[in-house]
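User: Hi! I'm working on a homework problem where we have to compare a predicted structure to a textbook description. Could you give me the structure for the chain below?
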Amino acid sequence: MTPRTALLGLFGWISTLGLLGLSPAHAESAAVAPATSAPTATDNEQGFVSLFDGHTLEGWTAARSQHAGDWGAFSVNHEEHAIHVYAGQQANSEQITDCLNTTTEFSHYILKLEYKWLGKRFAPRTDYDRDAGLLFHVHGDLSRVWPYSLEMQIGESPADKPRGKAAAGRFHSGDLFVLGKHLRTDTPIQDKYYAADGDLVTGRGVPTALGTEKPMGEWNQMEIHVHGSEKAIFILNGQVVLETRNFTQQTEEGQVNPLTKGRIGLQAEWAELLYRRIRIKELPSE
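Assistant: Happy to help. Predicted structure tokens:
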């Protein structure tokens, strides 16, 4: 390389740094500095839009909110770019449940998120399996901690744990819960558990023998495919764990109508956890 060529290369390098807003003194540190921005939900996921930007809870409302800017049991963990449930609360202290809902309703969509359990549990469930939930088709009074909705359970109980009462209760990620006596779904069942080729049963809750959480402290991937009132598919860590269909709601007069849309909700149930990378892809109506 000639001195002139080397000099031209140096000028070009300095010019490039100027366009990037960097000085030569910062070039090396910039090259190795870790990223500090939140994970981009739309990377390699065409059509997905983030519902949480990792910085604020705008676009959400909490059942326990007392005023604008208050999100109850939920706050932003800026280091993890996540929604933090019960942040800063003392382990085993008395806490209250809460629900964080979107301010927008959705009908046909794919929703993805990640969740991770942290160590603390709170009274009155200090000896229960950890428990939370992903709600969809949320409707009615949003000040209700458990609003009318359908739920994909989030919980650390293994898939083979039987149902029980109190501390023996089952809280398994992927189970179906129906929150509202006026709501029903049809789910294929065999021997009281979800089975893709089972008989369709109309009801308000179904456990699944499928699905495995990752070890404590690791991120789990959740996904639901919702098609209006027609069906919803639950996916945990890449595995389909349940499908339910034909969502209906009964009026006070006894008329049965399809449940076609609603908000999306995240539960807080006496266990510390993080939610992040919450993103949605709306689908055309069938």
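For your comparison, note the following. The first strand starts at residue 49 and ends at 50. Confidence is low (pLDDT under 50) at residues 1-43. Good luck with the assignment!
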